[in-house]
Amino acid sequence: MTGEIETLADLSKHYKDSVPSDLREAKSFEWYLEEVYDDPKIARNAHQRVADMFDFYGTRYDEDAGVVEYLMASEDPLHDGENVFYGREVHESIHEFVNKVKSGARGLGPEKRIKLLLGPVGSGKSHFDWLSRRYFEDYTMRDEGRMYTFRWTNLGDVIRDQDPADDVVQSPMNQDPLVLLPQEQRDMVIEQLNENLDAPYTIRNDQALDPASEFYMDRLLGHYDDDLEEVVENHIEIIRLVASENKRQCVETFEPKDKKNQDETELTGDVNYSKLAVYGESDPRAFDYSGAFCNANRGIFSGEELLKLQREFLYDFLHASQEQTIKPKNNPRIDIDQVIVGRTNMPEYREKKGDEKMEAFNDRTKRIDFPYVLEYEQEAEIYRKMLRNADVPDIHVEPHTLEMSGLFGVLTRIVEPDSDGITLVQKAKAYNGELDDGDDIDVRKLREEGESKADIGEGMDGVSARFIGDEIAEAIMDSTHRGRSYLSALSSFTHLGENLEGHGSIPEENLERYHRYLEMVREEYKERAIEDVRHALAYDLDEIRRQGEKYMDHVMAYIDDATVEDELTGRDQDPDEKFLRAVEEKLNIPEDRKDDFRQEVSNWVSRRAREGTSFDPQQNDRLRRALERKLWEDKKHNINFSALVSANELDDDERNAWIDALVDQGYSREGAREVLEFAGAEVAKSELEG
Q1: Residues paired with residue 342 on neighbouring β-strands, in sequence order
Q2: Within 13 Å of residue 415, how many CA atoms lie on the same side as its CB?
Q3: How many helices (H) and strands (E) in the chain?
Q4: Three-state SS across 131-191?
Q5: How far is CA 122 from the centre of its chain?
C-alpha cells in the first residue's frame, strides 16, 4: 500500500460521495412529473434500462471477430479488469444477449421471453449473469440510470383499520410513480414524454397498481371525493430506488432447492401470517410480496439451473414472461416488469429438449448459447486472469505453458475436420488466427462444418477452463513444494494427464481421446521449444535487421522492375532472386505464390511508412520467422551441438550464452535449462544425424 493512511473521515467522505445525493430524500409527485418531463428516460421499463446500461459502460467493435464487445465484459472497469471475458465465441454470446434485451426494449417480442443462457459447466454463463447484476446495481446509483418509486404516508389518518405499524408503506412492487395516474391521464403524460425522448424506443406503461396500492388508492379517493391531487399531495412521497441483490430490491436470484418439494410461493409471494389477525384473509394488505418475481420487479430476475425445476413449477414462468404478470395463490394478478434470465447446463437441456409437454415453455424462451472459448490464446488469457486475481507464489510461468494448456482445452471442444488435408491441431490454429496466405484453409467453412456436426453447437462440450485452471494451480503448488521457481508446460501436461480420470465431469468414453489430444499438444510444444532453442543458438538481432533490410530492398526493386546497388562492388544489379527465395522457402511459400507474399510485405512496409513508423522486421511475424530460420541455416554449421547433450558442459560460457538468449525470450534461467535439456537434444540429434 502506498500513500497516506485513510482515516475514518476520509472513508466516510468517500462513501458519501459514492451514493446518490437524493438517496434519502422524499420528493413530491409534482417534483417527479417535472423530472420525468425533463428526462423521460427516468420512466424506462426494465428492458430499456438494462439495454442502456450495456451501452453506458462503453462498446468497441472488434473488426477481426466481427462482433460488438461491451466494455463491462471485455474490460470490467468497475472491478479493475478482474472479471474480463475472453474469446470471440463468448463475446458473440454476450452480443446476442444484449441484442435480445434491446429488441425487448423496443417491444419487438423478446421482452415477453425468458433469456435462457445455455452452456456447459464453466463456460462463463453464470459469471456473466452475475456481472450483469453487479453493473445494474451500479447503473441505478448513477444519474444516467436513476429510477424512482413511491411510498404511502399518513394512511392511519384516513383508513381507520390501518395497523399503526403500517402508517407508511413503500410500494410493495417498487412500481414507477406514473402508475398512480389512471391510465387515461397516464397516457397523456407518456405521449408528452415520448415527444421529448431521444432514444430508439418509446416509453410505455400500462401496468395496474399492485393490489395493496390499489386498495389504498381506492380508499383514499373515496375519502377525498375522487380528488387525485389531494391523494398524492397528502399521502404520496417519491423516493429514489436503487437496485440491490442483498436487499432483494430490483435484483433477485432464484435457486431451486428441494426438487420434490417446490413451492410456487417462492416465486409469487405468500400470505403475511402476522397480518392475518389484523386485516383478515381476503384483505390485500395481508399479502407478503416476498416472492422472487416481486423482489426482481423493475430490474433483473436470475433463475439458476432453471430446467431442474419441476414442469408444473415452470408454469409460473409462462405467465411471468408472456403475460408479464404473476398470479399468487388466492390473490389477484400482479403486473411485473423485469428482464427474466435463466441459466442451465447441457444435461438438463438435453433431458427437456424432446419433452412435448415443455413446448409452451420452450416457445417462451430465447436461447443464448454460451460455448467454451475456441481460440487457445484467448483461453490462455483466462488462466492469466486467474493468476492475476490470486495470491500466486513467486513463480515464473514459462513461455508456451498457458497457451499449450489452452490448446489442449480447445482440442477437446472442436469437431474433427472432415478434410483429409487439415489436422485437428491445424484447425485449432486456424481458429486462433494463425493463417498464412499460402494456407488453403477456409475458416468460415470449418466453423459451419463444426456447427453442423456438433450435437448442439461447437464448443458446447469438452474440458472446461475451470478444470484446466485447477490443474495449473496444482502444478504451481507442486513446483513450489519442490523448490522450483518456475512453471513449465511439461509440468502442466503431467498434471493434466494424471487427473483426467479423476474429474467427474469428463465421460469415461472420452478419456482415451483426450489423452491422445494431450499427446498432440506435447508434440506441438516440442516443435515450439525446438524453435526457441534454435532461436537462442543462432539469434543475432543486428543480423536479422540487416537481412530484413536487404530482403526489402530487393523486394521493392523486384516489384518496381528496378535494380539495387551491390553491397560489395557498389554497382547496380538485378534483384537477387536466389536470396529472396532462400528467405521465402523458410515459410514454405511456393514459387507461384512468391509475388503475392512480396506484395503483401511491400504493402505492410508502405503502410507503416505512411504512419511514420520505420521498418523493423521484428514487427512482421511472418517475415521475422523466415529471417530467423534462414539465419539458423546460415549459422548452424558453426554451432557446437555436442554441448547441447553434454551435462558436463552445463555451465560453460557457450551454454550460458544460450541460456541468456532463452532468458531474453521470456524464460527463467531454470526454465531455460529445462528447455535446453528437453529440446536441445532433439535439435542436436537432427543436426548431427543430418
Answers
A1: 116, 303
A2: 18
A3: 29, 19
A4: HHHHHHHHHHHCHHHCEEEEEECCHHHCCCCCCHHHCCEECCCCCCHHHHCCHHHHHHHHH
A5: 12
pLDDT interval class at 1 (50, 70, 90): very low
The contacts of residue 223 (CB under 8 Å, 6+ apart) are 158
Nearest-10 crossing angle of helices 594-610, 621-635: 120
DSSP secondary structure of 253-309: EE----TTS--THHHH-EE-HHHHHHH-TT-GGGEE--SHHHHTTTSEEEETTGGGS
Alpha helices in 6-62 (DSSP H): 8-18, 29-38, 46-56
Task: Record the cell numbers describing residue 397, joined without a space.
Answer: 510461468
Query: Is residue 261 scored above 80 in pLDDT?
Result: no
Residue range 656-671, pLDDT digits in tens: 888 898 999 999 999 9
Burial (CB < 10 A; 0-12, 13-18, 19+), residue 52, is buried
How far are the Cα atoms of 65, 176, 447, 448, 472 from residue 444, in angstroms, in the given order? 11, 47, 5, 6, 32
Query: Which grid coordinates belong to 99?
Result: 441484442
Q: How far apart are CA 348 and CA 253, in angstroms?
A: 19
Report the C-alpha gap between 431 and 406 in whole angstroms. Answer: 13
Domain boundaries, the chain: 18-333, 374-521, 545-619
Give the span between the Cα atoms of 49 and 104, in whole angstroms: 11
pLDDT by residue (tens digit) across 451-499? Answer: 888 888 899 999 999 999 999 999 999 999 988 999 999 999 999 999 9
Joined grid coordinates for residue 617: 522486421
Tell me the per-residue pLDDT of 295-315, one tens digit each, with 9 for 90 and over: 999 999 999 888 877 777 777
Give CA torsion, residues 408, 412, 415, 421, to 10 deg: 30
